[in-house]
Amino acid sequence: MNQTQFIEALENQKVIPVIVLEELEDAIPTANALLKGGISFMEITFRTDCAKEAIACVSKEVSEICVGAGTILNVEDAKRAVEAGASFIVTPGYSKEVVMWCKENDIAVLPGVATPTEIMYAIQDKCNPIKLFPVEELGGPRYCKTMHSVFPALTFIPSGGINDSNYEAYLNTPGIVAVGGSWFASRAMIQQKQFEEITKHAKQISKK
Question: Domain of 155?
Fold first, then answer.
């Protein structure tokens, strides 16, 4: 998936679930639970032992889900994730090396930024949208609104501290196209096999 396709796919999505998988067996049920709830994106964090294999399983067996890899820290991990089937790459901070590798290989990338300086780096490298992280610690929707006023041509996907009580405030903020979070498909919910609950919460979000 290239950047243009990534942006087009985001048009009908309000959230990108940030999924932490401890057991490979939970990958497909989690993907199906999200899909039943009307959410067709899934960012699997690349910080557990089964992450690469989980991405491979979802990309092969649940083709309706756009699965990406999160917490990518370097080019080596980006390569491993894409080889497994990741359609997009998400970084927690700004890595020019990862961004350039993704662009050279026509892979969608969502780089993380926190400051105006990092946003300017992203602009120089023609990144759009970009991820604001950790957004709650940065100042929440008010911070997003300020950054949008300074950089009106950019769109943002905030992440970090977003939950059921504040996600709508983010989505109603100018410049925000979606939010990233795990509150409705948390690590604990997945470990406890609460897949019906994940579907229930996903439906509530996707219908708003």
Answer: 3-206
Burial class of residue 85 (count of CB atoms within 10 Å of its CB; 0-12, 13-18, 19+): middle
pLDDT over 70 at 208, yes or no: no
Asked whether 121 and 94 are in contact (CB, 8 A), the reply is yes
pLDDT surpassing 70 at residue 107: yes
* Total domains in the fold of the chain: 1
Q: What does residue 41 show for φ and ψ, rounded to 5 degrees?
A: -120, 150
Residues annotated as part of the active site: 43, 131
DSSP 128-142: -SEEETTHHHHTHHH
What order do you get walking across the sheet with 66-70 strand by strand? 108-110, 88-90, 66-70, 41-45, 15-19, 179-181
Q: Find the CATH number of the domain harbouring 183.
A: 3.20.20.70
Q: Give the pLDDT confidence score for residue 11 in this predicted structure.
A: 83
pTM > 0.90: yes
Mean per-residue pLDDT, 133-149: 98
